Structure formats: C-alpha cells, structure tokens
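One record is kept unedited as follows:
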Amino acid sequence: MEHLETPGERFAGLKDHPFEPHYHTIEPDGLCMHYVDEGPPEAAPILMLHGEPSWSYLYRFMIPPCVAAGHRVLAPDLVGFGRSSKPTRIEDYSYERHCAWMRSFIEALDLRGITLFCQDWGSLVGLRLAAELEERFARVAVGNGGLPDGRPPGGSRLGGLANVAAFLAWRTFSRFVPRLPVARVLQFGSGRRLDDEELRAYDAPFPDERYKAGARAFPQLVPISSRDPAAPANQRAWQVLERWEKPFLTTFSNGDPITRGMDRELQRRIPGAKGQPHRTVRGGHFLQEDAGPELAKILAEWIAATS
C-alpha cells in the first residue's frame, strides 16, 4: 500500500500541544499510527477518537484536565490524519480497514477498562469497536456523533443523519474540490474563531493534496444506504448497543446541524444511557474546540460517579 509520512518539522512548536509523539506499527500494512499517551500508565484509559478532517490536536484542551484528574489519556490519529501514515489512494480507505487499524492499536496496547470519548468519524469507528470488543470498554461518551447503519430511524433520517442535505453537500465538496481547505473546514465547524497558529496546526498534516486521500475518502464511507458494505456490520453493532447496560453518556453541542437530535436517538436506544447526566454544551460541530475544558470536567466527574 503506497503511503506518505508527513515530515516531522511540520508539527514543531504547535500551539497548546506539548505532547510527546508515540507510534504503533500496523501489520501487515506497514502503516504507523501516531498517538498521544499522557498520564499514569497504570490508570484505566480514556480513549479519545477524533473525526474528519481533524486529528488528535482537537483534544489538546481536554487531555491535560483529564490527566490532572488522575487518568491515562490516549488520543490516536486515525490513519490518513495527523502524524499517522497517509495512504495515497482513496480506494485504500474503507470503513472496515479503519476499524481493523484501530482494533490493532487497542489490542497491541492491550487496553482494558476503556472510557471512550468519540466525535464525528471517531464515533463511527469507536462505537463499532465498543460493540465488537465489548469486554474492553467500561463506558462510552459521545459528542456530536453516532453509528449510521443505512437504516433511517423512524423513516425520517437518511442513514441516521440529522441533516441529509448538508451531509450530501459536504460529501460532494470533499470529493471533488480541487484543493480541500482543511483548516477552513475546522473553522467553519467551530463556534469560536481559531487563530493563525491553530489553523496552521490543522493544515500541518497535509503538505499538499497527495496527503489528503483519507480526508476525501471519509465522507464517502458513511453507510447511508442498506446496500452499503458497512451497513451489515453496523447493524450487528447496534444489536450489541441496544442491550448495552454500561454507562453511556451524550455530550452534544447546540450548534451542529448534521448531528442535531442524534443524542436523543442514542439515549432512546441504548439502555446504559438511562438516568445518565446527559449534557448540551455551546459550540459547533467540533465541540472540543468550543467547550474542551468543560467537556473534560464533565467526563472526569462522570467517570468518578460511575466507577
């Protein structure tokens, strides 16, 4: 599989990102998955999974408070993003491969007692793996995400997406725009104004368009039809989630049109969500940019209350 590695100097001196890089080699593909690993190694892990087209930089405001609360925090970069390897062909990316790559990471580090925090594509990968590796996960928190399986809940939402038109427009744009403006996408999806250094950090993984195949591929991989190859596996995952009794929390923002209302769907369908202190925070799609410290506080208090 042909792939590129982003030169390390592009990540030098990033604002609010003092974390040492760590790498996991994915066999047999020979790809490297970068991850942040902070806090006591013996502590039960919080696994933070980012979405499209961001990377673990998105969690820079959440990692330190969670570490200060005594937790180990792991924030990997999905393959094709951040410091991780970037296959150059859109065809090299599939939903199944992303799940397999993240499964390799979880199993290689032998993570157990995991608290998952996931958003956007981090939810599509994370919720699927929480169902498939149920014994390794202690609790799940979702912010602006879900697990589309090609079947519209209540017959009103295509594949479980709240705003079909917005998503389809994004899918077409990301696939065909000559230059995918990654930093501008992050700015558009955030409620606050990102400064120049933050925008530089989001562009850092992508020196040129050759590095963006993953960012272009992701929107095409969301299973919005029952004919999608990922739909059966996600439907099987939902069979697990619909009997999931472990703590399940939603922390959605009030300003994301694409996932609006999906928190109520998760609360309704997942038994472990009953009686949990679900929260709505102020922010856009990338709620970690708008409410990172608040989310970290909510997460730490919820873990303490459910441990």
Remarks:
- The domain at 3-306 is CATH 3.40.50.1820 (Rossmann fold).
